[in-house]
Task: inverse folding
């Protein structure tokens, strides 16, 4: 079943003091994959910058950057995207490679495509190797376990054992801390899963994106109540990258719309930049994922 | 290595010099057997007896101190800053030796640049498994923004430095590559100047190769890299600022190469270009010679939170609108973990064998390397696989058993984070030790600069020596002595000055509006601090002299008045000026030196002198060497050890304040005689005049508002405090009257110390600042004009008139000046000086 979406993601900063200058790099354009097509993307910025540059970063994500050098007290960024998502074929988990074969193949640089996935093995600023992650994932990956069976089990384990709590963590909480506390948000769950997989020698990456929310039976869909979302992907050898959502215990399908991927959150932060002045500021984010046809 | 040794009997100080057996000595094959290329130098040296050598050594020390050559040029405590310790004996190197180095270094620079091109481009080396992919992909310094950042035809390495050691068989080994922003060039220049000055005869005989052509080449290379305005592109040296360990060198290079010294805050990106903030507005920059680490160059795309860089710089580089040298990402080439793979990379990329080998290095990320390292741990030094910094390497042999176990555990759990390196038994050089010459081990640093499509080696270098061989394996800052490296020349040397004119005519300029705003601000404050120091010193001198000649009591009128004045100037505990409080406080004789040296009191002479010394270093590239030295020399006196400070009594204090008065007078003379009347001078003058108004108004208000008895004596010390006693005597002889004194100090526009004189000059200066003189006056112009007028229109008779022992008009006028002068200073700041806020990170959006 093909799904079409119209997604509006708006971010508004309000400052108590004027901001004379700011530099921004945005990753707000949904990513093209074999299963997703971004048919249109518009970015509204107020105040209007002179020029918005567009490029692809190292990971292939689309980055839009701009500088504002007129003094402002309010910055509005509104990205409107239309995306078509095709259903993807997930290989039967029992038929994927044994996890040890993936780990050895990448380590020894013998498996096909080893070069492209190698960097997702190593420590990055928010997801690093550690014995504690290895131990946590051990029961999901017994010897000879098929990789996707193991990864799905890990996703379910995190879903079962972790408490969703938006107040418990921040964007820079380390996964070792979330693991110890067993709580956090989608970002923390993804970082924990990635750290576990890397500790086993398996390539794992972080995916930021949107999730279609289905309103409770009989209730209307609330506009703007959605949020940006995040999950992880594990590399399964010839079966490629498979996206798994530990927040919802789901293999990602047509409800998930990817924006960008990288080693962890810091590679794909939707807005990265620097400003001067500003005093106190408040931030308002609203995301609306509207299905517009099938 | 074969080399002819000259059997000669060295005379003088070298007679008993004994090279260490089993170690290569740079000058002697054995006792009494000098290497041929050192013979002419030795012949000259032997003419100097040890007393003479010692005298030259002290002369060098003095030159270095006077020039302020320090490794950590400035820090608040003044403690970790250490002067550069230079040995006057140069390390002489033969043509043949240099040829080996020259070829090897050029090949190595070419190789490292090719490696960078590959790692930040197609990555063949990784795909073809010549270099383990992990070394790049897990490198904490590999910001992905470095990849494909610049056009592929751009040079990446403009300056490369290699650290070398010479083993007992005479072969050279590279112990480290430096590609970030290698330091040492400034020290090499300074060493050359000092050694050639203290050993002129030897310098003429030995004729070492000149250094200037290398710097000319460096300058041409940077010029040719400019994206536009290739005739004379605006180039800045991007420094980490006055508290960076290499600040001395940043200033030195900027001055020597003729570039503007800038810090991150002086630059901004606007409309896709990098701009320098100057008084006249924003001026585009074409080339940045950076002295800032790659990762710190742009807080937007590189290390978040870094304050030394320029926000948005990476984007400008990406569009090729500015050139950064060395290119961003170059630091990856100095990664220690790459070292074991350089020979193979050299074969693949250059199709040749590597000429200059590295000291044997193992990257523990490879299982076989780890096994070797673990079983030979005591023979090796262990260091970070990725990061080159000043942290000393780990010497397993010296660790306690527990620490050793800990190290082994870390090597086993995170092997990829470590490299281990073999130690080279380093060669020795003769070092002068006051009465004898001894062999010390030496580490060498050589430099290479880009030259067209290839590179050029600096025919000279930096040697650091130490009796402790291990100390040299650490950073550039270690080693007890530095030596200049002389390369034997192969022909007559062409004499070149960097000031040689180019063929392109320069546009003649007079304005100096391109003064960076930060420099203007520092000059303004330097002016204020110098004047503050001078004013405080003069007033202190008056009081100290008075105390010495009138030892009896603390209740005479002059004493009371001067204590009040000094308290108002911030030199004395205010309680001392209040009768009732005075008794509880320690006696005046003891408390005066303490409060003058109180670093917590912002106005104390000690704080002021600290300010002078900080500011004079920050604007060092704007001052003449003489002017700079005048003030720099005072620094040590005002940073005494605790023991010395406790010995400071009135007599010593009087000497110290006298030195301040002499130095500021000398500085004034130098600045009025030799500084062009540009904005540099104007801001310095403005600072001084504003401060002088504050000083004079403070003195007059605290001494003359209350009519004291006997007034003539008070008038005398007030006139002396304000440096006008000679003028007064010249006019009125010894008749001291309030009205005449007040006229001289307030309303007399011919007295360069009077208030009206300062205000007149201030008004003139603010009217000549860039963007002044518009139809609507700026706040600074209006304030200056109004203060000038109110003083000019005052009547001396009215000011001197007292009612009930109080001069109310004088008080009102002085109070007005004291209220308005800070406002004027702020108005100038707001209009012309920088007040850019610190960069803040966008709060990472919560999900």
Result:
């Amino acid at each position: 079943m093909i799904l079409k979406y119209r997604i509006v993601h708006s971010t508004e900063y309000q400052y108590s003091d004027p901001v004379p200058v700011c530099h921004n790099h945005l990753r707000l354009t949904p990513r093209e994959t074999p299963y997703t097509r971004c048919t249109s993307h518009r970015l509204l910025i107020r105040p209007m910058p002179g020029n918005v540059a567009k490029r692809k970063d190292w990971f292939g994500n689309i980055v839009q950057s701009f500088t504002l050098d007129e003094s402002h007290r309010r910055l509005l960024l509104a990205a409107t995207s239309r995306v078509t998502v095709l259903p993807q074929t997930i290989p039967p988990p029992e038929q994927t490679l044994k996890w040890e074969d993936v780990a050895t193949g990448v380590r020894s640089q013998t498996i096909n495509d080893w070069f492209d996935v190698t960097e997702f093995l190593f420590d990055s600023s928010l997801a690093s190797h550690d014995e504690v992650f290895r131990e946590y994932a051990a029961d999901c990956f017994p010897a000879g376990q098929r990789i996707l069976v193991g990864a799905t089990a890990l996703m379910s384990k995190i879903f079962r054992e972790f408490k969703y709590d938006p107040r418990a963590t921040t964007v820079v909480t380390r996964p070792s801390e979330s693991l110890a506390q067993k709580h956090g948000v989608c970002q923390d769950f993804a970082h924990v899963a990635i750290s576990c997989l890397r500790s086993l020698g398996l390539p794992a990456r972080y995916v930021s994106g949107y999730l279609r929310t289905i309103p409770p039976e009989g209730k209307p869909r609330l506009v703007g109540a959605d949020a940006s979302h995040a999950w992880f992907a594990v590399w399964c050898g010839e079966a490629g990258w498979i996206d798994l959502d530990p927040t919802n215990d789901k293999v990602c399908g047509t409800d998930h719309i990817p924006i960008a991927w990288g080693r962890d959150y810091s590679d794909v932060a939707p807005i990265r930049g620097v400003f001067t002045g500003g005093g106190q500021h408040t931030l308002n984010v609203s995301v609306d994922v509207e299905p517009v046809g099938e | 290595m074969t080399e002819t040794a000259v059997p000669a009997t060295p005379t003088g100080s070298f007679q008993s010099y004994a090279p260490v057996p089993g170690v290569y000595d740079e000058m002697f094959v054995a006792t009494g057997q000098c290497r041929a290329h050192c013979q002419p130098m030795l012949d000259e040296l032997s003419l100097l007896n040890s007393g003479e050598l010692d005298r030259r050594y002290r002369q060098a020390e003095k030159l270095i101190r006077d020039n302020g050559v320090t490794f950590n040029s400035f820090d608040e405590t003044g403690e970790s800053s250490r002067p550069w310790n230079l040995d006057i004996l140069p390390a002489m190197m033969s043509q043949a030796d240099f040829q080996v180095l020259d070829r090897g270094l050029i090949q190595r620079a070419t190789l490292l640049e090719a490696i960078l091109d590959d790692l930040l481009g197609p990555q063949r080396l990784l795909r073809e498994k010549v270099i383990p992919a992990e070394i790049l992909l897990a490198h904490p310094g590999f910001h992905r923004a470095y990849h494909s950042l610049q056009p592929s035809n751009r040079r990446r390495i403009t300056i490369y430095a290699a650290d070398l050691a010479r083993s007992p068989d005479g072969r050279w080994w590279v112990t480290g590559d430096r590609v970030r922003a290698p330091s040492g060039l400034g020290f090499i220049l300074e060493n050359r100047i000092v050694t050639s000055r203290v050993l002129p005869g030897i310098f003429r005989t030995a004729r070492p190769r000149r250094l200037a052509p290398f710097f000319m080449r460096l300058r041409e290379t940077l010029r040719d890299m400019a994206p536009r305005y290739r005739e004379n592109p605006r180039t800045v040296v991007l420094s980490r600022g006055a508290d960076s360990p290499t600040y001395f060198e940043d200033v030195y290079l900027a001055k020597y190469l003729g570039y503007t010294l800038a810090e991150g805050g002086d630059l901004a990106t606007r409309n896709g270009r990098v701009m320098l903030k100057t008084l006249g507005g924003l001026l585009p920059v074409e080339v940045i010679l950076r002295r800032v680490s790659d990762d710190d160059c742009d807080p937007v795309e590189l290390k978040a939170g870094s304050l030394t860089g320029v926000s948005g710089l990476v984007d400008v580089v990406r569009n090729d609108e500015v050139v950064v040298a060395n290119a961003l990402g170059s630091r990856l080439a100095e990664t220690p973990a790459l070292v074991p793979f350089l020979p193979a990379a050299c074969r693949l990329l250059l199709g040749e064998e590597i000429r200059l080998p590295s000291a044997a290095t193992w990257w523990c990320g490879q299982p076989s390397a780890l096994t070797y390292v673990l079983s030979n741990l005591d023979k090796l030094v262990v260091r970070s696989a990725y990061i080159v910094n000043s942290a000393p390497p780990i010497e397993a042999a010296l660790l306690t058993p527990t620490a050793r176990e800990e190290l082994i555990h870390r090597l086993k759990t995170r092997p990829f984070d470590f490299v281990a390196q073999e130690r080279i038994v380093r060669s020795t050089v003769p070092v002068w030790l006051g009465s004898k010459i001894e062999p010390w081990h030496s580490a060498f640093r050589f430099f290479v600069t880009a030259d067209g499509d290839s590179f050029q080696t600096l025919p000279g270098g930096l040697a650091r020596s130490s009796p402790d061989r291990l100390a040299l394996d650490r950073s550039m800052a270690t080693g007890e002595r530095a030596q200049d490296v002389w390369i034997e020349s192969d022909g007559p040397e062409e004499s070149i000055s960097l000031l040689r004119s180019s063929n392109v005519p320069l546009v003649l300029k007079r304005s100096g509006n391109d003064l960076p705003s930060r420099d203007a601000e520092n000059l303004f404050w330097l002016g204020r601090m110098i004047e503050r120091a001078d004013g405080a010193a003069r007033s202190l001198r008056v009081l100290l002299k008075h105390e010495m000649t009138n030892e009896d009591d603390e209740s005479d009128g002059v004493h009371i008045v001067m204590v009040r004045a000094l308290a108002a100037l911030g030199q004395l505990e205010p309680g001392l000026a209040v009768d009732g409080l005075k008794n509880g406080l320690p006696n005046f004789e003891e408390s005066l030196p303490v409060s003058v040296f109180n670093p917590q009191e912002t106005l104390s002479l000690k704080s002021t002198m600290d300010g002078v010394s900080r500011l004079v270093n920050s604007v060092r590239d704007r001052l003449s060497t003489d002017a700079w030295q005048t003030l720099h020399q005072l620094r040590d006196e005002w940073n005494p050890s605790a023991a010395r400070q406790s010995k400071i009594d009135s007599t010593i204090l009087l000497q110290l304040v006298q030195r301040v008065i002499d130095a500021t007078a000398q500085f004034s003379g130098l600045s009025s005689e030799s500084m062009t009347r540009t904005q540099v001078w104007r801001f310095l003058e403005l600072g001084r005049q504003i401060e002088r108004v504050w000083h004079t108004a403070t003195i007059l208000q605290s001494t003359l508002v209350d009519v004291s008895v006997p007034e003539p004596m008070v008038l005398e010390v007030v006139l002396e405090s304000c440096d006008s006693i000679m003028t007064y005597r010249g006019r009125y002889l010894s008749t001291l009257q309030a009205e005449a004194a007040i006229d001289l100090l307030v309303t007399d526009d011919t007295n360069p110390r009077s208030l009206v004189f300062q205000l007149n000059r201030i008004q003139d200066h603010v009217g000549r600042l860039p963007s002044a003189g518009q139809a609507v006056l700026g706040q600074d112009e209006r304030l200056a004009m109004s203060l000038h007028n109110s003083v000019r229109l005052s009547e001396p008779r009215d000011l001197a008139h007292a009612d009930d022992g109080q001069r109310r008009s004088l008080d009102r006028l002085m109070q007005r000046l004291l209220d308005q002068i800070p406002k004027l200073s702020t108005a100038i700041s707001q209009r012309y000086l920088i007040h850019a806020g610190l960069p803040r990170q966008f709060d990472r959006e919560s999900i």
Remarks:
- Chain A touches chain B through 51 residues (CB under 8 Å).
- The two ends of chain A are 7 Å apart (CA to CA).
